[in-house]
Amino acid sequence: MNSTQNNISSASISASNGKNYDNVMIAGDGIGGLVFAGRLAQSERFAGRVTVVAPKGRPISRRLILGCSLRGSAVAPICQGLDIDRDTFLDAVFQSQSSYPACSRATLAMWKPNKNGKPFSPYGEGSWLGGSRGNGTPYAYSTRNQQITTKIRQFAENLPIEFIERKVESLDDLKSMATDKTGRTLYVNATGNPTLFGAPAKKPTRMCFAVQGAFRVGPEGLRAPLASGEIHAPFVRRNGIINVGFLTPFSDPLNPTATWYAILSRPVVADSGYDKDQELKTLTDELLAIAKGGGLIPVDPDETLAAALVPGGWFLDAPKSAPGTIELKQLYSAGVPTYFADGMSGAALSGITAADAVLKGRSPDADVIKMLRPFRASNYLHWTLMGPMSGMTNMILRAIPSIGSKLYAPQHRLWQEAFA
Ligand SMILES: Cc1cc2nc3c(=O)[nH]c(=O)nc-3n(C[C@H](O)[C@H](O)[C@H](O)COP(=O)(O)OP(=O)(O)OC[C@H]3O[C@@H](n4cnc5c(N)ncnc54)[C@H](O)[C@@H]3O)c2cc1C
User: Exposed e or buried b for every residue in 79-103, given b needs 16+ CB within 10 A?
Assistant: First the structure.
């Protein structure tokens, strides 16, 4: 084979030239992998030619693992990928509740400790989504991550997708399961393992402490700035970093008395030197103090509270998929999704964008990176305000809260549900 033929042949299987594929093998059945699979399986070209390989079912536990705030912006791409309408999806996830725990407004405030063990109290309150009254269009719904992914998998099983129930060990392992041997199979890594297909291991540059749990309203009722139907983002400034949280209305089949979800997270530079246990304990104390300040009581904290140190990266870190593959999960995992609560939106939107790129013969890598740019820019601004410029952010929120909350407001369209 001469070099020209060689180039043509590698181009024909490159991820940038999707029109040459006619089979797809996907490792991983998370939101990104299943939305991608579903979108392709709805096309004439790929119907019955999409295979998802993953162990079925995640461990069941009352503890809240992974993200629980589903941004409104995730709903439309999930439904497109699964070929269902919005109410079918939300009825399934929220078990036909007549009203979903939707939020159409979001507030923020800085919280500080009080002396004598009293709960934390807020200052610098403002609204960053939905203005002063809310706009009737949901920005987020909250439930356990496992409930969302289980329902997505069930809907995906109605589409012409083949499921193989086992763990993928490597790219060669995935290749060994492909029935097509003509070189027209696209291999997709939709697992959280960045080295599964042979990419070199990279040390995380950022880490994020996170504590989250299920709560209910205490006997004295909710206290401002918490309000029903609203997200509240509490900020706590400690040692030059602003910890950011979300408190949202919530429902969870495994914790039926829980009506609120609360998370507090703290990003750090990976090699900054920290005492992991002490950090998680302090963060847990802060979360419980804020919740108490808002009138919330934890539901069985020994069984539902979860504390973790999650690896992250820089905002612009994006892998280059090797020819014939897509590093799908890595493409949408840049930055610190735990801190920004954009993991599920990123996953769903990237699943649709990457599938459309394959169908149109475009580069999934380039299209996903471009589509996610507004998220990355917004996250970068957020990171700067909460880290290097946390002193200024604190000062503005204290002095002119109405302006402080506007710093956060560009996020509107990255949260809002697109169906309305
Ligand atoms: C504490 C915390 C809080 C967060 N908060 C939010 C939030 O509020 N909102 C938000 O949107 N995001 C949030 N995130 C991020 C969010 O949880 C994730 O980004 C999102 O769940 C990613 O989902 P995914 O479907 O892309 O991937 P995953 O959930 O990682 O799915 C990967 C799938 O691949 C499977 N798999 C893994 N290895 C293999 C293998 N070798 N072979 C085959 N299959 C395999 C797994 O079983 C799994 O089903 C949070 C994350 C954390 C940790």
Answer: bbbbebeeeebbbbbbeeeeebbbb
Which CATH number is 338's domain given?
3.50.50.60
Cis peptide before 101 (omega within 30 of 0): no
Amino acid (one-letter) located at 51? T
Say how many C-beta atoms besides its own lie within 10 A of residue 297's C-beta. 15
- How far apart (Å, rounded) are the C-alpha atoms in residues 289 and 215? 12
Same domain, 167 and 51: yes
- What would the pLDDT profile of 302-358 be if each residue is shown by its tens digit? 999 999 998 887 766 777 899 999 999 999 987 777 778 889 999 999 999 999 999
Candidate of 173, 191, 207, 260 to mutate for ligand 1, largest count of ligand atoms within 8 Å of Cβ: 191
Could you tell which of 66, 150, 197, 231 is best to mutate to test the pocket of ligand 1, judged by most ligand atoms within 8 Å of the CB?
A: 66
Q: What is the pTM of this model?
A: 0.92
d(CA 53, CA 55): 7
Residues 6+ apart with CB under 8 A from 302: none
Within a domain: 420: no
C-alpha of residue 30 to centroid of ligand 1, in Å: 6
- Distance separating alpha carbons of residues 379 and 330, to the nearest angstrom: 17
The values of phi and psi at residue 8, to 5°, are -60, -45
Question: How far apart are the CA of 1 and the centre of ligand 1, in A?
Answer: 43
Do residue 291 and residue 402 come from a single domain? Answer: yes
* Residue keyed to tokens 């992991």: 276
In the chain, the amino acid numbered 413 is R
Question: Which ligand 1 atom is nearest residue 31's CA?
Answer: 25
118 Cβ contact partners less than 8 Å away, ≥ 6 residues apart: none
